[in-house]
Amino acid sequence: MRPASAVAPVAATMLRVDPDLPTERRILLAAEQLFAERGIDAVSLRAVMAAAGTNVASVHYHFGSKDALVEALIRERAGEVSARRAELLDGLAEPGRLDAPSLARAFVEPVAHMALHDGPHWVRMVAGIMASGHPSISVLIDGFRTQARTFTELLSQLHPEWSPEKVRFRLSHAMRTTFTALGDLGLDHDLPQISTSAMSTQEIVAELNDLVASVLSDPEPRPPEARG
C-alpha cells in the first residue's frame, strides 16, 4: 500500500472515465483513481482535469477547491458504506445475535462490497489516507462518527471487562486492517509469489472476516502448563 503522499509511476495510471458522464461525475471518478494510485498530495488539479477531459475552472465551479473535492469524494462513498453497515448493525441489536464474527462482518463486508464493485479506487485511497495520516482523515472520522459510537457500544457490551482505551485500540486496528487488506485487493501481481496457488477473492474476504474477528476477541486462555 502506497501512502497518500507517495508518487506512483505515471505509466500505472490508465483512466477509464466515461466521456458521456456529467462533468462533476467525471471529475470525481478521475480524482478518485489518481488519488488512489499516486496519493492525494502528489496529484494536482491540472492532472485531475486532464484525466477528466475538462479544465481547471470546472473543479472550482463544482467543488470550490482541491480540499473540497477530496471531502466530496470521501463523504459520497462513506455514505454508501455506512448505509450497508447500518443494515448489519441493526441485526446485532437482537438478543443473542452479538458476537465477534458478526461484528467483524459489519466492518468488513460493506467495504468489501465497495472494493469489488463501484469503488475499488476509493477503498485504496482511504487506506492510503489512514496509512499516511493525511489531514483528510478528519473528514473520514467525521463521516463514520455515528457508526463508530455504535461499534464502541457493541464491543463494550461484548467485552464489558475491556477498558475504553482497549476498545478504541481494537476498533481502530480493525478499521485499518480492513481498509489496508481490501485496498490492495486485486494487486497481487505487485507481490512476490511464495506459492503456486492463489486465494480467490471470496477466500480473501473470508480470511479478512476471521482476522478482524480475532482483533475483536480475546485469545483463548492458555492452559496452566503452557504459561511461564
Give an account of the 3D structure.
- With 228 residues, this protein is mainly α.
- The protein has a single domain, classed as Tetracycline Repressor, domain 2 (Orthogonal Bundle), CATH 1.10.357.
- Helices cover 63% and strands 0% of the residues.
- It is built from ten helices and no strands.
- The chain has helices spanning 23-38, 45-52, 56-62, 66-91, 100-116, 120-132, 137-143, 145-158, 164-183, 201-215.
- Helix 4 packs across helix 5 (100-116), helix 5 (100-116) packs across helix 6 (120-132) and helix 5 packs parallel to helix 9.
- It is elongated, with a radius of gyration of 20 Å.
- The model is unreliable at 1-13 and 188-192 (pLDDT under 50).
Describe the secondary structure blueprint for this structure.
Blueprint: H1 23-38, H2 45-52, H3 56-62, H4 66-91, H5 100-116, H6 120-132, H7 137-143, H8 145-158, H9 164-183, H10 201-215
Helix pairs in contact: 1-2, 1-6, 4-5, 5-6, 5-9, 5-10, 6-9, 8-9, 9-10
Overall average pLDDT: 85
CATH superfamily: Tetracycline Repressor, domain 2
The residue fraction in helices comes out at: 55-70%
Beta-strand proportion: under 5%
Radius of gyration: 20 Å
> Secondary-structure element sequence?
HHHHHHHHHH
Mind telling me which CATH architecture this is? Orthogonal Bundle
- Quaternary assembly: single chain
Low-confidence stretches: 1-13, 188-192
Q: What is the rounded distance between the termini?
A: 38 Å
Query: What name is given to the CATH topology?
Result: Tetracycline Repressor, domain 2
CATH structural class? Mainly Alpha
Which shape, going by the Cα principal axes?
A: elongated
Total E-strand runs: 0
Structural class: mainly alpha
Major β-sheet profile: none
**Domains (count):** 1
The helix count comes to 10
